[in-house]
Amino acid sequence: MLKSQNNEEEDHSLKPGLEQHYAEESFTDSLSKEEFYSPNEEFEVDSKGVGSSSSPEYAALKEQLLERLKGNPKEPAVIPNSVSEESFPDIESVATHQEVEVQGTSPFELESDYSGQERTASQTYKVDLTFQPKATSDEEFVELESSVPPIPKRAVDSIAQDLKKPVPTPSGQPVSRRSRSQSVEKKPKKVKKSKTKKIVTAIFGTLFLALLGTAVAGYFFIRSSLGPVDSKATDYLQVEIPRGSSVKQIGQTLEKAGLIRNATVFDLYVKFNNHTGFQSGFHNLQKSMDLDTIIDALKKEGTEAPVVPALGKVTIPEGYTLKQIAAAMETNAASTNQEKSPFTADEFMQVVTDESFISEMQAKYPDLLADLPTADTGVLYRLEGYLFPATYEYQSETTVRQLAEQMLAAMDANLRTYYPTIAEKGLTVNQVLTLASLVEKEGSTDEDRQKIASVFFNRIQWGMPLQSNIAVLYAEGKLGEKITLAEDASINTQIDSPYNVYTRLGYMPGPVNSPSLSAIKATIEPAQTDYVYFVADVTTGQVYFARTLEEHEVNVQTYVNSKIESSTTTQ
Predict the structure, then answer these.
(1) Which InterPro entries match (predicted)?
(2) Which helix (H) or strand (E) holds 93?
(3) Domain limit, last residue, from 243, 276, 308
(4) Torsion sign (Cα): 393, 397, 399, 402
(5) Cα–Cα distance between 378 and 495 in angstroms, integer?
(6) Is residue 292 in some structural domain?
């Protein structure tokens, strides 16, 4: 509400038509002064001119103001201090007049956005409200009267107040023009940036997941390719590797046979680890073999013709007696769970004690079995000590008889180079194997075994009994069993047996176990000493030698008797 010069209150608020324009932001229609102000409203001018709401000069100036505000809402609307005649032909000039500053939010700067956010706007509108009518001569110029009372600047103030009013949204709730200005300038940019960021994040996230998935899949693929195709497979497959085959060709052959999963992985793995030396020929392989096991197998010499693959293995440890060998025949040494072989201990003992089999083997291996002890010598088992300790493979059609023959053939092959030396020394194969079976159990190192063999030869040469507990334990049937050192020291040295080397001179009827090649060599080539006694420390295994009985008794007391109270040993 504004007051006129007569102090009467007048309503200068916006009419409903203008409020509708504000609400819809439609400022394209021409707005006459009547839509803003009452017809009888008066305005203040300075002392140089006269203006009123009814004067045509003021109406033209007001229309100029409104058109400028509507036409360029992005910049402050300024009526210049100099107005051309083209704009106002009835106005000669416009003097320097007052400037009116309007603070608030301009509705002309707002765009269609009802987000409700606010933005502060401040504009300064320079409005020339005074002017001079155009005069044709000095006489026609009308001087302003200084007595004209000032009138409030209600025109611009009223507009400024209206600009500060909130604009209603379609829902009926008012939204300030400040908030709408904020949402127009800020949110679209924020939304655009947010959308771009989301797109970039989604792209990189997808790429990362794809790369990660590829890496994980590749890792498990390579890992599975290095492992066995079928870890439970037991059957052997025969694979031929032609001479001159490349690594790539070998991989293709293995993949075709179903032994590996991927030939390319095989090729890369072999080259990366610098594996070389693959052998041509026929190879027996299993699907339960991993890549490293297959590579190792292919480095072994292949056969010129297909060979029936092994079904299992039998291992004969060094120093085993014939009975122990029979028990070992029942176990498949190729298995990890001690699975049984197709053989039995009784079946094995029947074969190796069969005279027809022994005769057949004597004819087949005369150098080895020429002086085999006869049954009337008191020998316990004629073939005791003649079966070479090693690991033997068997196939599905292998028999116990064939395995026993393989063991005899292996002993013959290992001794073949020593037959001339044995003959030159005036020894027999049976004598060598007999002493070697004692050396096997009495010593553990090659040096000790050569010295122990020299003691036995010195005793035989000087007419002294061998006096080895190993022979007596064999006679008692305890060799290979776990016994205490006290039991070992208290053996029955008076037992009536051809193996009692305490009471009998010379050699025993035959070996008491299957000696190793190391013990055999030590016996054939013993050390040159004058020792006739030896004893081993029961805790360390170190052997002490002596030339006299007195030295020997001191060693026995020091290294045996003082330590035999609770110790155990296996002979």
Answers:
(1) MLTG-like
(2) strand 91-93
(3) 308
(4) negative
(5) 14
(6) yes
Instruction: Give the integer Cα–Cα distance in Å for 514 and 384.
Output: 7
Enclosing domain of residue 361: 312-416
254, 339: one domain: no
Highest mean pLDDT range out of 187-196, 231-240, 488-497? 488-497
Burial degree of 21 (CB within 10 A; 0-12, 13-18, 19+): middle
* Exposure on the CB side of residue 185, measured as CA atoms within 13 A: 12
Judge if 347 and 409 occupy the same domain: yes
Q: Please state, in angstroms and as integers, the Cα–Cα distance from residue 566 to each residue in 470, 493, 524, 557, 563, following that order.
A: 20, 22, 37, 16, 7
8 A C-beta contact, residue 291 and residue 224? no
230: its two tokens = 């079928």
| The pLDDT value given to residue 346 | 96
Residue 302 and residue 316 in one domain: no
Tell me which of 398, 416, 434 is where a domain ends: 416
First to last CA, the chain: 128
**Domains in the chain: how many in total?**
3
Q: Kindly state whether residue 303 falls inside one of the protein's structural domains.
A: yes
- Angle at CA 63, nearest 5°, toward 97 and 41? 75
> What's the pLDDT at 5?
41
Q: Are residues 230 and 249 in the same domain?
A: yes
**Over the stretch 9-60, which tens digit does the pLDDT of each residue have?**
444 444 444 433 333 333 333 343 333 333 333 334 333 333 444 556 566 6
Q: Which of 109-118, 280-289, 396-405, 413-422 shows the lowest mean pLDDT across its residues? A: 109-118
